[in-house]
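Reopening this ticket.

The earlier resolution said the output was attached, but the attachment link was broken on my side. Pasting everything inline this time so it's all in one place.
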Amino acid sequence: MAGNIVPVLMYHHVRPGGGMITTTPEHFEDQLRWLARRGYTALSTAEFIRHVRHGGAPRRSVLITFDDGYLDNWVYAAPLLRRYHMRATIFLVTGWVGQGPVRPCLGGPDPLPETPEHRECERRIAQGRADEAILRWSEVRALQDQGTVEFHSHTHTHTRWDLLDAVNKNAHMRDELAQSRACLREQLGEVSDQLCWPQGYFDADYVRIAHEAGFQHLYTTRAFGRNRPGSDLASIYRFAVRDTTGASLGRRIQVAAHPLLAPAFNTWKRWKKGLSYVG
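Inline output:
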């Protein structure tokens, strides 16, 4: 089936100072500015899924996603998304999200909260201090109400059970998905059929378990494939956005969306990594 290729962008952090899997606010704004000036549409997930099923997305389209639900997504990323009239999706680790009032964010009158770098976020989460690193439900609901961000499951604890308890990993994943669904339904009143795999790992068992749990649209960290009409919604490709300029990201988007360059680029990159080619 012919049709546009829609690149899916994967972010984690937007915070000053850069760092691991982090984009600075300056670069994030430059990336959004590049998209806005060139007439790109940031799709909702419903629009993205409809395109993969039937086609019809604007020729210049992307899906912007964030993994885990870090506090800096509220403090820095969301205000910049609003400034450029862009939408995004955050995949929440539901067991990390806490309660409390909304905190200050970019553009407001109050001092901004600390937004730790990635390894420090991991350390605080492991110590039971996730509130210092992760969104609160009040902030999640505020972003929903603003129409800036939508939220879907990234499991309940973000655990690689295949590494910690391989024998029982399937049972653990069933529990993870059930807890995540229950939490989203309790806090937001609904839960979608979309799931992002924690740390990028999945196998055939996990896909089957996700489908049985009610998740039909599954997001990966696999970069070298094309999201076009007729492609597999149980294996949605995303590529990680680097801490780079809008022009640099733009070149990557243009390659990913090109009907001839994209398959050639993907084949070359997969060959370099020793992977078999898919899509």
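Reporter confirms the inline version is readable. The longest strand covers residues 61-68. Strands lie at 8-11, 13-14, 22-23, 41-42, 61-68, 88-92, 149-153, 194-196, 217-219, 239-240.
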